[in-house]
Design brief:
- InterPro entries: Choline_transptr-like.
- Belongs to the CTL (choline transporter-like) family.
- It holds the Pfam family Choline_transpo.
- Keywords: Antiport, Cell membrane, Glycoprotein, Membrane, Transmembrane, Transmembrane helix, Transport.
- By secondary structure, the chain is mostly helical.
- Among the domains are: 58-186, no CATH class; 368-412, no CATH class.
- It is 60% helix and 7% strand.
- It has 21 helices and 13 strands.
- The chain has helices at 6-29, 33-36, 70-74, 95-101, 106-112, 127-133, 189-263, 274-277, 290-313, 315-334, 341-364, 397-400, 416-419, 421-455, 468-479, 481-507, 514-548, 552-564, 567-600, 618-656, 669-674, and strands at residues 58-61, 82-85, 93-94, 139-140, 143-146, 149-152, 154-157, 160-163, 168-170, 176-178, 368-374, 386-387, 405-412.
- β9 and β10 (176-178) form a beta hairpin.
- The longest helix has 75 residues, at 189-263.
- The protein is globular.
């Protein structure tokens, strides 16, 4: 063994150190309280104790039309002044109308000015100056709080979007606008609001049923282990029962089609052709034609013949596939620790996800309120320069530029860090994908090394190393970190491109350019296929790395050509394995799901008194079913890796050895018998 892909290993380590540095910088500049607690344009949290905003817990946006989406609002990137208020507006009003009527309707002004900047009480100030200085909003609209922020109070009336039963409103700048203009600023908010109470009930159900959910998942784990053990004895039986069941069902279909074809003989109109009657929306009409049943019968006969011919010509390869499945169950029986390795992979991926999410939140909340000088005079040299509102009145700016104001401009910053926050978010996503793929690659290489040590043992289990899983893990980390990182890097690049394509597709969904949509669809399809192909190549490359210790490119090339020389065996083994493991997942998830259904619906008399009182019994039920499927998938992924490793070892064994005393086969006796050899050559001690 020697270190492989050293350059990629060094780059990987440097990237990890840089990723840690990025997280530290984000944590220094970011403040996640901005996501939980709204912040006004002065950088103060709404509802913060011992401040003027202590009793003002809700954030109000001066011009919500400038906000593109709720996500932008929550991340405090909406380019409008924000103010902490004690309650949201409950009526339509504009500053123009309120100013015109404040003398004889002072109550309207008193209500409106609570949404103006603190201390502002000058209704005589011209509308242009008020809007320029952003002393007050140009309009207020009926709103309700969501995530402690005021959003338009949308509702639908006869299928028409309304706010307070109105479809239009005045924007305070002399225009009448439709409420649909507010849709993008609060898209989907009402659905989330309606789901809040449901979410609380679901949380309560989890709080009182988590113990029983864990019991259900433990039962799923035991059933998964039992299924893997039984595969050693039942793999062939389950497969052949399924195959002959399919043949029988198709045979019945052929007989039924012939019966319908013969039964329609002599009935008027049944001898017409499909061409004669043309296209009909009622498809039952076609079932009255003999030609339809004849076509069905011919198709089913073709499928039946193809399946029977495949069984005849591929029978030996099917037997090899079943023997490898049994051998995989036997290998796991000798190395039981491999079944619990997915927990390590899960923990590594959980750490990656947590670090990525926390870093993303801190990056998103790194923006600070930026204030700029807004001057009446176009020749003011200080115009559009940043300023500090607390010290602005003490500077000479107001003297040199009369009427100049230090007003809120946007959230962000003008430092190098703030200018490249979007790039940092992309880097954060890319390194996250790289690390997740590396964790998966490490797991695959570790398991492959453990199972390869089983196959290449002369005497099983006597020659299997004492700690095969830990030894394989140590080799993968010590010698092949660079190779695993190289394979993960290639996959991460493709996945990032897919994420970008999905983002572009989402943004261009409303466009009428059919060529653009077609091009995006083609690119998404191509990169999806490329990702699947790379995952297949990487998986087998990691197996070859675990066996021979070569670099990634050499291992990928040798694995690919080895599989191509055994392409039929690959196809047969893949389908047989997929079927049996899918059947196992369905049996485990379905069995535990049925048991959970009877338990949570109090249909098991013995445990009827133990069932917790739930708002929705389907909450723990779905959790148990999905969790059981994931538990089974975790165990069966080890089994699939075992079978793939044994298969590559089997193919290598056939090519490198001939069964002689000098070059004995390492395969089991059952596989040797299937190959048609008279006896297994004695193996060296």
């Amino acid at each position: 063994r020697h270190c492989t892909d050293i350059i990629c290993c060094v780059i990987f380590i440097v990237v990890i150190l840089g990723y840690i540095a990025l997280g530290v910088v984000a944590w220094v500049h970011g403040d996640p309280r901005k996501v939980i607690y709204p912040t006004d344009s002065y950088g103060q949290f709404c509802g913060q104790r011992d401040t003027l905003n202590e009793n003002k817990t809700i954030l109000f946006y001066f011009n919500i039309l400038k906000c593109a989406s709720p996500v932008v609002l929550i991340n405090l990137q909406c380019p409008t002044t924000q103010l902490c208020v004690s309650k949201c507006p409950d009526r339509f009003a504009t500053y123009i109308d309120v100013q015109a009527s404040y003398r004889y309707r002072p109550d309207q002004w008193n209500y409106f000015r609570q949404f103006c900047k603190p201390g502002f009480n000058n209704p005589r100030k011209s509308v242009a100056q008020v809007l320029r200085d952003e002393d007050c909003p140009s309009m207020i609209i009926p709103s309700r709080p969501f995530l402690k922020r005021c959003f338009p109070d949308f509702s639908t009336k006869n299928g028409v979007l309304t706010v307070a039963n109105q479809t239009t409103f005045k924007d305070g700048r002399g225009k009448t606008r439709n409420v649909t203009d507010l849709r993008e600023a609060a898209n989907g908010i009402n659905n989330v609001l309606d789901a809040r109470s449901v979410g609380m009930k679901i949380f309560e159900d989890y709080a009182i049923s988590w113990y029983w959910i864990l019991i259900g998942l433990f039962i799923a784990m035991m059933l998964s282990l039992l299924f893997l053990v039984l595969l050693r004895f039942t793999a062939g039986v389950l497969f052949w029962i399924f195959i002959f069941g399919v043949i029988g069902i198709i045979g019945y279909g052929i007989w039924h089609c012939y019966w319908e074809y013969d039964h329609l003989k002599g009935i008027p109109g049944s001898d017409l052709t499909v061409y004669d009657i043309g296209f009909q929306t009622d498809f039952k009409v076609y079932l009255q034609l003999r030609q339809t049943w004849l076509a069905f019968m011919i198709i089913l006969c073709g499928v039946e013949v193809i399946i029977i011919l495949m069984l005849i010509f591929l029978r030996n390869r099917i037997r090899i596939a079943i023997a490898l499945l049994k051998e995989g169950s036997r290998a796991i029986g000798y190395i039981m620790s491999t079944l619990f390795y997915p927990i390590v992979t899960f923990l590594l991926i959980a750490i990656c996800i947590s670090y990525w999410a926390v870093t993303a939140v801190f990056l998103a909340t790194s923006g600070e309120p930026v204030y700029k000088v807004m001057a009446n005079q176009t020749l003011c040299k200080y115009a559009n320069l940043t300023c500090d509102p607390e010290t602005f009145n003490t500077t000479n700016v107001t003297k040199l530029c009369p009427g100049a104001q230090c007003t809120f401009a946007f959230y962000g910053g003008e430092s190098l860090y703030h200018k490249y926050i979007f790039i940092f978010q992309l880097v954060n996503a890319f390194v996250f994908l790289w690390l997740v793929n590396f964790a998966i690659a490490l797991g695959q290489c570790t398991l492959a090394g453990a199972f390869a040590s089983y196959y290449w043992a002369y005497r099983k289990p006597a020659d299997i190393p004492l700690w095969p899983l830990f030894s394989s893990f140590g080799r993968a980390i010590r010698y092949h970190t660079g190779s695993l990182a190289f394979g993960a890097l290639i996959l991460a690049i493709v996945q990032l491109i897919r994420v970008i394509l999905e983002y572009l597709d989402h943004k261009l969904k409303g466009t009428q350019n059919s060529f653009t949509r077609f091009l995006l669809c083609c690119l998404k399809c191509c990169f999806w296929c490329l990702e699947k192909f790379l995952k297949f190549i990487n998986r087998n490359a990691y197996i070859m790395i675990a066996i021979y210790g070569k670099n990634f490119c050499t291992s990928a090339k040798e694995a690919f050509f080895l599989l191509m020389r055994n392409v039929v065996r690959v196809a047969v083994l893949d389908k047989v394995t997929d079927f049996l493991l899918f059947l196992g997942k369905i049996l485990v998830a379905g069995g535990v799901g049925v048991l959970a259904f009877f338990f949570f619906t109090q249909r098991i008399p013995v445990f009827a008194q133990e069932v917790p009182m739930l708002n929705y019994y389907w909450v723990p039920l779905l959790t148990v079913i999905i969790g059981s499927y994931l538990v089974a998938h975790g165990f069966f992924s080890v089994y699939a890796m075992c079978v793939d490793t044994l298969f590559l070892c089997f193919c290598e064994d056939l090519e490198r050895n001939d069964g002689s005393t000098a070059k004995p086969y390492f395969m089991s006796a059952s596989l040797h018998r299937i190959l048609g050899k008279k006896k297994l050559s004695p193996k060296k001690a």
